[in-house]
Amino acid sequence: MRYLVTETSWTMIALARALEETGTLITSVEAADLLDSYLGTGASDLILLDESTLAQNGLSLGEVCRMAGPAPVVLAVTGPRPQEVSAWLGAGATDVLDLGSSQDEIGARLGAVARRAHGLATPVLRHGGLVIDLHHRRALACEVALPLSPKVYAILEYIALRPGQLITRDALLAHVYGFEDEPDGRVLDVYVCTLRSHLARWPSHARIETVRGAGFRFVAQAASATARAA
Fold first, then answer.
1. pLDDT (tens digit per residue) in 30-50
2. b/e string for 2-26 if b means 16 or more Cβ within 10 A?
3. Which of 75, 120, 122, 199 could lock 115 by a disulfide, CB 3.0 to 4.6 Å apart?
4. What is the C-alpha separation between 36 and 13, in angstroms, rounded?
């Protein structure tokens, strides 16, 4: 998963670094006035911002939610009052986090929000015999662990969460690299080729199709058997 995090306070910077240490991909927005340019790109699975970002940018929470599209928007606040939480949820926030909570609790709640946006109630995604453990960031085929590098795993997770959808090369690069230091596009071809070679041993479970001139499509044997959120 990739989270877009507004790092407009030391607390948010520390939180972003803690999330990165768990393996979560982070796109950092270091100035409130840059938030607009990042929203709506589709490169993030979740938007995390604090209340001060809204004041500095001049955007309302509703405007941010509309610009974010399908990505859930989570507001981080220190010691929110119940009536404030109700108002923010009514304005479009998917969740409101108390920054005074433990980092473990914050990480778990963000993970749950991001998963549910993809229709998953648990952190395990299944496509036939292919199992992707979103929490531990690993993949298994017929109970055999696939030796995937972090970037190759990130590609698999991204496309497997969107089975049947056309994934453009630009969207995949933006997800893996977060708009920073994106490599030559041929590097992406190497990663996809590596992933295909791992999946080739179990072709009946899933495969990656190349859509010439457009991108890639993950074709699964069957829809995810994981329990899905209502």
1. 877 778 878 766 678 999 998
2. bbbbbbbbeebeebbeebeeeebbb
3. 120
4. 19
